[in-house]
Amino acid sequence: MQTDTQYGTSTITVAQARQEASTIFLAKVFNWMAIGLGLTGLVAFFTAQSGLAMSIIGTPLFMILLLAELGLVFFLSARIDKIQATTATGLFLGYSVLNGLTLSTIFLAYTRASIGGTFLITAGMFGAMAVYGMVTRRDLSGMGSFLFMGLIGIILASIVNIFLNSSSLYWTISVIGVLVFVGLTAWDVQKIKLMGEQGIMEQGESAIRKGAIIGALALYLDFINLFLMLLRFFGSSRD
């Protein structure tokens, strides 16, 4: 009986330690995500204010910035295990700045009030799904491949619609996009939570920082893309 009690106490202690480690790691991830979003927002606002956004949209520079962003995301995701933590941090912050430059162009298309309102709606939806991802006992790993297929479908349909210019397809993509990025938010948060529970906090400061950066990048992308999809519904044109 004594052995059972000791075993039970040990099990509870381990579970509590894992939960605490997961909470600390999630806090680091969300902090870096917030830093990235804040940096993007500041760069976007001041770029639009300065008039530089007018020099970016519809020019080869805009495409160069988009390609640079894609390159940074793929490089950071593929090389996260091999690069230094400071390099990963710099790449993430650099991506946030580049994204701010390209997103500055939304101030040319939508009113500031509708952009701010859409941001709040996005924050609410993102927060709700993040909480769900943290507290649910349901294994969301099976959603990953399904959501990834949905993401690929959105990209391909968006490319096709450049040539078709179909308003019905545009709205269909937007609706599916909202559903996909809402699902990805919950899935990514649960995945990050599991990283904390499975011992990343015991792997040293460098591993923790890199894990937090790659987790922040995933959530940052979920938030930004959800925001852009919702802006199609709630954004008010400046015209």
From TrEMBL:
Pfam families: Bax1-I (PF01027). The keyword Thylakoid does not apply. It comes from the Bacteria. Keywords: Membrane, Transmembrane, Transmembrane helix. InterPro entries: Bax_inhibitor_1-related. Signal peptide: none annotated. Coiled coil: none annotated. One of its GO terms (cellular component) is plasma membrane. It is found in: Membrane. It is a multi-pass membrane protein. The chain crosses the membrane at residues 25-46, 52-76, 88-109, 115-134, 146-164, 170-190, 211-234. Belongs to the BI1 family. This is Membrane protein. It comes from Desulfolithobacter dissulfuricans. The gene is ybhL.
